[in-house]
Please model this.
Amino acid sequence: MSRVVSSPSSGSASGVLWTQLYLGLGFTTMATLIMELALTRIFSVVFYYHFAFLAISIALFGLGAGGVFSYVVAARPGNVFQKLGSLALAASLSVLFVLWFILSRENNDVLTLAGVYFATAVPFFLAGTIVSIAISEAIERVHRAYFFDLAGAAVGCLLLILFLDVAGGPGAVIAAAAVYAIAAALWYNQARQDSLRIVAVLAALLMVTLLVVNGKTKWFDVHWAKGERIPEERFSAWNSFSRVGVIEQHNPDGSPYWLIRIDADAATGIATYDWAHGLFPEQRAGLLRQGQGLPYAMRPGAKTLIIGPGGGYDVSRALASGSKDVTAVEINPLIANKIMQDVMVKENFGIYLRPEVHLHVEDGRSFVRSSTEKYQVLQATLVDTWASTAAGAFALSENNLYTSDAFYDYLSHLSDDGLLVFTRWGFEPPRESLRLVSLAMNALGRLGEPDTASHVIAVRDDATKINGWGAQDTVLISRKPFSATDIENARRLTAESHMDVVYLPGEHPNNAFGQLLSSANPAEFWNGYQYDVSPVGDDRPFFFYTVQPRDLWDFVRNANQQSADYKINRAVPLLFGLMGLSIVVTALILILPRLMLGSRLPKQKNVVKFLWYFLCLGAGYILVQVALIQKFVLLLGHPTYALTVIVFSMLVASGAGSYLSSRVVAGDDTRLMYVLAAVAVLVGILAFVSAPLVAAAAGWPLAAKVLLTTLSVAPAALLMGMPFPSGLRRLEERHAPSVRWAWSLNAAASVLGSASAIFLAIYIGLRSTLLVGAALYVCALLVILATRQRGSDVPHQA
Model:
């Protein structure tokens, strides 16, 4: 059998310390995953949430390019493990440079973004070179090497959450630098280079020291975000899915007020009402005479559930109306516990500590699904997840709070006189608020209430600010048709305030709300409307994406770049750009190794044809993973939990599959085809059973939900770990130098697959995305069948 080695000692069993090779590989992939996902958090803060998925693409591009570059490294004279140690040490140092470079940028123009893109790719490029060479060196034991590859990444997935919570985004990146240095020490030890090993150990100790010191000094921290300097903050902290800061502002009269800023962008004000001494009349009127206060003016003293209470203004409105039972469900523990009940408790007069208020730190949708209570008011004001998580890197602005299935859950938890109240940005023509009505139409129809027009009241605050961030539309949806008294009260209350009536039952305004609610064919209205305001369900939870496909290019050219609308929807043009770039890079990776190998490329067509197998595996695996993350967000309650559980479970199970592949598959093509077919079947089953599973387990405790998720994805993931190492063994037998080529193509296909996963989820849904992933495993099976039929006995290459 031919070798893929560049030094006499680097491939033989007698010269390799296999445990150290496995550990070096595992620590390398561990550091790579920590940095990759930590950068999604930093990109979300420094730029915008939709740039977070670019961090994933940068990582995968770098890994793929590194695989191509590994040809050059392997061909140079010298001990291969010493080269790997030097590459890992360079990766460790480059991580610090990249962190400094990102955090020191004062602008986010095109040149800055291009510089960040290419600079950030450097450590991933080095890591890709390391992994490609290491896998090639261990090709005889590739099933074990790939196991440690995946196991290292799985451990990194868990450590990421710890590092983000304890050390923040910059600290997590510094931790990745330390792990790279540990990998360098292992590679140098493998090469018997004692002096260089000491250097690497000292570098690791230096990184750990820097990590500790940075926690106090904030040498590496976010000072510039979205092209602006972050104002002085009274408090700031990171957790696994956000960076939260408190800043002080001043009213025109000089009195202070405070804002909670999430990822240096989305903000919620802190309510500062002295409940112990009662409200002044003008304070009570100010709370109730606006859109968000209208439900409390119509249902004074209501039993209330508030999703995303933030700084407490909606809670204040409920209390101002006389409510004695207010349940507040806040997903972010930094806001609920640290800020509102500790750092700013004096300023907010302990609103969350009041006996009428029952605070829960949980995802709002999950709380509702597991609750047995009925509420008179269920409210959510400008709640979203723009602040990207690592999962949000793939999720764009998905939000399971805003689906027709969610509205069905909410309406099912209302009393007969109950009101569902959502506030979103008001634009002209309307987008988000009109889509709320579409969701209501779908949900009410399922509840046996077909006449949505009698269930909706819509009002607008700050109507003059319809193109930016100021205007807010509040939509009230009643469980039963609004009574004549309700309608008259709403008309009177809006007349006494600064609200504008957008829609009242019984009236037929000549606006989009009136047209939709009076339409005999809503589907025809949705298709013909300027924006996509059709209802979205849990299978396609992209509420915020409202650009019609036919208008995408016009939106890119003409949208107001300072508007909320643009900042939400511009992620999709970036997605299309990423897909195009992915196709180009994949094509380059198909071509470049051919030029490098030249005459060493075998004449048999089956070798080149067989490389399509690795393209199918790379794209198929990431399609399945991304879709499953999205699917199980609803069950686990937050994208961070879904990312951690799904990615960790799949990596561990796939690693186990890799380890078992030498026994299960061995060199038998028929067995490999059975495995690929089984993967397609299991993924197809997941596509159809995941939604019922999620619904059935809605009320389970978190530990049970995690167990169910793990058991659901593990069988498919176990088998998904077998085809890649099995394919590498077959490729090595046919043409050993092409192993690195296959690795690069697999990484490039993962980039294309990650972008395609979101494109498919937006337009055809998550279930269909899973089925496309299953189909790619069938395509891989066909590649095996084709190459087996025509050239299964390709002679070994020298």
Remarks:
- The radius of gyration is 28 Å.
- The mean pLDDT is 87.
- The chain has 27 helices and 14 strands.
